[in-house]
Design goal:
about 350 residues; alpha+beta; Beta-Lactamase; Arc Repressor Mutant, subunit A; 3 domains; five-stranded antiparallel β-sheet; about 45% helix
């Protein structure tokens, strides 16, 4: 690569600076696709997440119209013909590569990759690089530059290769910034705890509150050195390390306590499990929202607490027969036929929307 001039160095440093300043993954992707076209002239710059195993693809492009309806599905069907994608995936070597490293123009035009996809974009030349070693179940994250005429030069390849480690680190910084913002919002709420786990489900760090929360997801009610199966399924989800896909969640409810677990990626191979707990016992106020009379609400509240009709009658100074009549009215108003159905309605009224990580 020839010596960079003053203007080239300034543009290069400005681009890298914008990547590192991105507050979240979406801003990082925007800075990457828009800025890379300013450094290396291209008709299209795309951020790609592709998985040759599941044959899925997601694109963000500059200009945006390069991602047209159905484009991701089309590429997913032909990606097995793409020599750069398959090389990056098969060798775990993410170095900057040209499409012409593998195919002549004649060979390219013979492929469905060109006929069904690149021809629609009016492109024939590509330069692409990845920054994390591919892994089974994890999309390849890559930057790809496209031209309709004139192949990319060795100098341009060298520039992208020089940028590649910075792109990878900046993507991690953006993901962690978003994670920190989520954590700040989450930890601002009471009943919140956190654990750090490895991708294989091993617990790396967890305070006592987090271990107690985890135990609620285990049928045995205890936790050893690994997270319970329900939480392991969240950690193992491929979406956990994607810049584009949201984190997963699971919840469990027992003894009037609702526990929600969110898994958040901490690149490259660790995850944060954030737990939030809240009481969901029915109260007179929440039951009153069901449209019951004050006495009916009192009866249902005691039913939800597990009292029998005679016990309810004794508590309210009424007969068991009167309790039964009030329950008949409760069942009719709630559209249920059993004490269990009425109790479930009481608990739903106490926690109508569940708990989410805000």
């Amino acid at each position: 690569m020839g010596q960079l001039g003053h203007d080239d160095v300034a543009r290069l440093l400005g681009f890298v600076g914008e990547l590192y300043e991105a507050p979240d993954p979406a801003a990082f992707v925007h800075a990457l696709t828009e800025g890379s076209r300013g450094l290396i002239p291209a008709d299209i710059a795309g951020y790609n997440e592709v998985d040759p195993v599941s044959r899925t693809a997601r694109f963000v492009a500059d200009p945006p119209e390069a991602v047209f309806p159905g484009s991701e599905e089309i590429f997913a069907e032909v990606m097995h013909e793409h020599p750069v994608v398959m090389h990056h995936f098969g060798t775990q070597d993410g170095r900057a590569l040209l499409l012409s490293d593998f195919l002549s123009q004649r060979q390219l035009r013979e492929l469905a990759l060109y006929r069904d996809y690149y021809r629609l974009l009016d492109v024939r030349f590509m330069l692409a690089a990845t920054w994390f070693p591919p892994a089974i179940g994890v999309p390849i994250q890559a930057i790809a530059l496209f031209r309709s005429t004139g192949d990319f030069t060795e100098a341009e390849r060298a520039m992208l290769e020089m940028l590649r480690p910075h792109i990878g680190r900046a993507s991690q910084v953006a993901a962690l910034r978003e994670l920190a913002a989520r954590m700040e919002r989450a930890m601002g709420a009471s009943g919140t705890s956190m654990a750090v786990v490895a991708a294989d489900g091993r617990i790396l760090e967890a305070d006592a509150a987090a271990r107690t929360a985890m135990s609620r997801f285990d049928p045995r009610g205890r936790v050893d050195g690994r997270v319970p199966d329900r939480l392991a399924a969240l950690v193992a989800s491929p979406s956990g390390v994607s810049l584009a896909l949201p984190a997963g969640a699971a919840h469990v409810q027992s003894d009037g306590l609702r526990t929600v677990a969110h898994v958040l990626p901490e690149p490259p191979d660790r995850f944060l499990l954030v737990f939030r707990e809240r009481r969901t016992d029915p109260s007179g106020e929440t039951i009153a929202s069901l449209g019951l009379s004050p006495r009916e609400a009192e009866v249902l509240l005691l039913v939800a607490r597990g009292l029998t009709n005679p016990q309810i009658g004794e508590a309210l100074f009424i007969s068991a027969r009167t309790v039964r009549k009030h329950l008949e009215n409760v069942f009719a108003k709630l559209g249920v036929h059993t004490r269990a159905g009425a109790t479930a309605a009481a608990f739903r009224a106490a926690d109508p929307t569940g708990t989410a990580l805000g």
